[in-house]
Amino acid sequence: MLAVASDFARIIGIEYDRELHELAEKNLAHFMPIHAPNQALELYCLDAAAYELPVMPAVIFIYNSFGAKVIAQVLGRIRQSLATHPRDLWIIYCYPLNANGFDESNFLKLEVATADYRIYRAS
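Given the sequence above, the corresponding C-alpha cells read:
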C-alpha cells in the first residue's frame, strides 16, 4: 500500500506462498479501486530468485522474506541484471535478520542502517 501512495510508475508484488498471494490479491481488490484506481500493479506467485527484474530504475522492498540461501540467489539475479542494464536501483530491507549478503555484496552501498531496516543503493 505504501508503494501505491508513492505514485510509482509500476508496482510489482511477488509472493512465493499461494495463500499469501491470494490474500494480497484480495486486499488490493478492496484497496485499489478507492485509493489508486489508475495505478499499474502486477502480482505474481513465484520464486523471487527466478524473477527477471524490469529494465528500469527501481526500488526493491523486501520484508525479511528470505533466508540466506534465497537472498544469495536474489542478489545474484540483481547483480546480473545491473551488469547487463546499468540503472539506478535501491533496496529497502525491513527487519534485516539476514543482512550479511547485502552488506558483503560488492555492488550495493549501505545508505541507512537501523535495527528495523536497511537501505542500499546499487553502485
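The chain has two domains: 1-46, 49-123. Try to locate this feature in the C-alpha cell string yourself.
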